[in-house]
Amino acid sequence: MFGFRKLTAVAALLGSVFASGAWAEGTVEVLHWWTSGGEAKAVGELKSAFEAQGGIWIDSPIAGGGGDAAMTALRARVVAGNPPTAVQLKGPGIQEWAGEGALNDVQAVATAENWDSVLPPVLAEIMKYDGKYVAAPVNIHRVDWIWASPVALEKAGITEMPTTWEEFNAAAEKLEAAGLVALAHGGQPWQDATVFEDVVLGVGGPDFYRKALVELDPAALTSDTMVAAFDQLRTLRGFVDDGFSGRDWNLATAMVIRGEAGFQIMGDWAKGEFLAASLVPGKDFYCIPTPGDGFVLNSDSFTFFKVAGDENLKGQQVLASLIMSPVFQKTFNLAKGSIPARTDVALDDFDDCAKRSHEDLLKATEAGALVPSMAHEMAIPRSVRGEILDVVTKFFNSDMSSKDATTALADAVARAM
Ligand code: BGC
Fold this sequence. Notes:
The longest helix has 26 residues. Strand 4 and strand 5 form a beta hairpin. By secondary structure, this protein is an alpha/beta fold. The chain is globular. It folds into 2 domains: 194 residues, D-Maltodextrin-Binding Protein, domain 2 (3-Layer(aba) Sandwich); 203 residues, 3-Layer(aba) Sandwich (D-Maltodextrin-Binding Protein, domain 2), CATH 3.40.190.10. The termini are far apart. A 5-stranded mixed beta sheet has the order 2-1-3-13-6, with helices on both faces. Strands 14-7-12-15 form a 4-stranded mixed beta sheet, with helices on both faces. A 4-stranded mixed beta sheet has the order 9-10-8-11, with helices on both faces. The chain is 53% helix and 13% strand. The N terminus is likely disordered. The structure holds beta-D-glucopyranose. Beta-D-glucopyranose binds next to loops. The site of beta-D-glucopyranose (BGC) has 11 residues, from loops.
């Protein structure tokens, strides 16, 4: 009874606010790291939708894939007492900022719009702090993908996409023999870690992934399975071209787009680049999950920092509602390469890669094979992730043995805990 009365009161409040047009404006300063072609197109959808409702959008992009530079900038803004109104954040980062008391909740909007009934429970939990929504999710990205150039594959005489790491290695050798770059890669810690976690899943399976990269179990980190994962990472390192160091991920995607490279191992934000270049999936580029069972989950969301001023508060509420609207979830994700966070948005207009992502997500959820991305800040605190990334990148850029890498990994985790 109380719950119903409360709900009715919130609905009435929101109804009168919307009816009076009081929320039709609002201002948001949005800090995000969506600066590549596909990303900019996707965030442009959010900006236009917000402006179409009469809002003022102040764009604060911080270039740098994976968001590490953005997170450093955010910390500086908060320390200076001047946080942005809305910030792209995820996973434990949401909990950490909420725990510091830095976030406004958007529970009134979530209750009025019944977010609980349209979000997968696993995602809804990540968005809440103390039982209240403090973040609004825009999408579900899959991290474990291989992207390929049909032109390059044909030149190398490859007729099938690889479904095991052995097949991948054999195909990569053919690409090299044909004078092409086998694996387009950018040597940045988060990109090295993206490939690493996909390999850990492929080599060890979802239970092992969870033990090692979520629970940080020392036995798993130093196991023979982890040695085997580093061995495969070493093999992949051999397929990368000389110019890889420091290269941005979208420039690596561009190598596949141009047919100079056969493969890229990257999350489906890479698809946003292919689409922005007007390429057609299944014809001009191919997608296939990286070898192994499971699904590495990444999801982007926006949080709402505590700022003064009614305009800002209005902006936060309007943005939260907009982000979760079915129409926006569709248009945004068609550009971004991901699939909607809402479960009730039809995928008819999405391509086969997106449909595969959705099907595999359901299957993985059922089979207990859905794992959160370590590289993309969905699994463990930022400080521990940083230590793991250091080891992976050091391994990638040296002749460290796989066995030594596993010890370094366990030591790094122990230091950070
Ligand atoms: C984000 C994506 C983004 C990618 C590259 C990931 O961590 O979730 O939205 O496109 O980084 O910048």
